[in-house]
Structures are given as structure tokens and as C-alpha cells.
Specification:
Layout: H1 2-19, H2 30-60, E1 73-76, E2 82-83, E3 90-96, H3 101-119, E4 124-130, H4 140-151, H5 156-165, H6 172-181, H7 186-195, H8 199-211, E5 219-227, E6 230-237, H9 242-254
Parallel strand pairs: 3-4
Antiparallel strand pairs: 1-6, 2-4, 3-5, 5-6
Helix pairs in contact: 1-2, 4-5, 4-6, 4-7
């Protein structure tokens, strides 16, 4: 209710300033009225932009508790970058944005421990899906495309890591520098990025994430690997502590047959 009431009051106040009686005997001319209307339109656009940014920032904040109260999510992970055994009993899917600070926190502080204890031991397959928030992070989508283009030369994860390590410097010219640094050949990479051929794949990440209940980044789904390209799992919101991920992963592992439960 507050989200609706606040912008409504702003609009009412701005409109009132235009239509309030002027302190003069003769009414304002048409030119003056048009100038006032243009000013109101500009003010409303600024308010709309600022409110949009505030709401997106709120959607990215870590959520207390972290586990979404919803039915299990069924989703495809076909053609998405992944680490670990393809037939690992549990799959962890991350929906992420290269310019999101909370995503960088998960990358730097949480994922290394999960990779060591679960991915590298064959218990968990990790899948990365792009969920760029364009209006808040204007370079995130092109950075995601750059990672896929580096992947054509076998350097997806190297580029992925460099992008998160430099998330405050992801202008197009800087993407080229990072590609060279990880050993990606220049001309082919440049052509790939400029062509935008991976834009549809990134758009699928947005669609699949939204269908899974992702409202901000990072968002996750942890669950049973039901087939080579599908997962059935529990949605998690926000960059939760590593203990939250361990608890949920261990719960899913406990449901798997012993034969599919690799040792550390």
C-alpha cells in the first residue's frame, strides 16, 4: 500500500501545482500551460526512474530465511554453462547478474566452499543462468554475452571469473581487454559480441528465472537432478550464508539412493 500511496501523493502534488489558481487576474496563456505540463512530465519521469531503482535495490537485498514458500520448481538447464558431473544427484542453479554486488559476494565468499565440498566431489552439478537487470546494471547483459563468446574458445569460466572480479569496470572496451587477458583470440571474439547471437540465450535465462520465482539477483534453485537437462528443486532468494546452502543440499542428498551419493 505504501508503494502505491507514495507515488500517488507525488503525482497529486505536482498536478496541483500546475492547476492551482495563479495569483493574477487573467488566466495563463497556452504557452505557459504547456511549459508547466512539460515540467510536470519531466518531474514524473524522474520520480518513476528513482522509484524503479529503489524497488530493484530492495529486490536484491538478502532475504531473511531465504527459502521461497512455494511448490518445487521444475526447470530445464539445457545448453547452460555448468560445472561438475552431469549426472550428479543434486543440481544448484544460480540466476545471476555480473554487475550485482550480492552476486559478486556469492561468487567470492560462498561458492568456493560449495565447489570444494560438493561440486568437485561429484555430489552437485552447478549451473549458471544469466538474469541481468538492465535498468539498474546497463553493462550486465553485454558482459553475459562476452562470457558466452569466450566460451566458444573454451574460456567461458575464465571470463566468468574475470567479469565478477572486475564488476565495476564492464564497459565494452574493457570486455575486450579481459578477453585478451584470458587468452581469447581477438577478431572472432569481437565479431561474436557485436553480432549479439547469444542475446536469445540470455533472454531465456530471464524467462526461466521469472517462471521459477526469481525476483532479484542472485536467485537459486537447488534440487534433484531428474534428467540430464532438468532439475526439480527448492527456490532460494538472495546471497544467503554458506550454511543455508549446505543444509538444503544435504537435505536433497539424503533423499538420493546410496549408489548415487559420492563420498567426499
Amino acid at each position: 500500500m505504501r508503494r502505491i500511496l507514495f507515488p500517488t501523493l507525488i503525482i497529486f502534488t505536482l498536478a496541483s501545482s500546475v492547476w492551482a489558481p495563479a495569483p493574477q487576474e487573467t488566466p495563463p496563456d497556452l504557452t505557459t500551460i504547456k511549459a508547466h505540463l512539460e515540467s510536470v512530465k519531466a518531474d514524473l519521469q524522474a520520480v518513476k526512474s528513482q522509484l524503479g531503482q529503489v524497488l530493484r535495490l530492495l529486490s536484491q537485498r538478502p532475504v531473511q530465511g531465504g527459502i521461497a514458500a512455494s511448490a518445487p520448481v521444475h526447470m530445464s538447464v539445457a545448453d547452460a554453462p555448468m560445472l561438475g558431473r552431469a549426472d550428479a544427484p543434486v543440481t544448484l542453479v544460480e540466476f545471476s547478474d555480473y554487475e550485482c554486488p550480492f552476486c559478486q559476494r556469492f561468487f567470492a565468499m560462498t561458492f568456493p566452499a560449495l565447489k570444494k565440498d560438493y561440486v568437485d566431489t561429484g555430489k552437485v552439478r552447478y549451473v549458471f543462468r544469466d538474469f541481468p537487470l538492465d535498468q539498474l546494471h546497463p553493462n550486465a547483459k553485454k558482459a553475459a554475452e562476452a562470457a558466452y563468446c569466450a566460451g566458444e574458445q573454451g574460456k567461458y569460466w575464465e571470463m566468468h571469473d574475470v567479469l565478477f572480479q572486475n564488476q565495476r569496470a564492464l564497459a565494452p572496451s574493457q570486455l575486450v581487454e579481459y578477453a585478451r587477458a584470458v587468452g581469447v583470440a581477438g577478431a572472432a571474439f569481437d565479431q561474436c559480441v557485436s553480432s549479439g547471437r547469444y542475446a536469445p540465450q540470455i533472454e531465456r535465462g530471464l524467462i526461466d528465472g521469472t517462471a521459477a520465482g526469481v525476483q532479484g539477483t542472485p536467485g537459486f534453485v537447488i534440487g534433484r537432478t531428474t534428467a540430464a537437462d532438468t532439475v526439480e528443486g527448492t527456490p532460494i532468494r538472495g546471497a544467503q550464508p554458506v550454511e543455508t546452502f549446505r543444509r538444503i543440499i544435504d537435505q536433497w542428498l539424503a533423499q538420493q539412493p546410496a549408489a548415487n551419493h559420492p563420498r567426499r
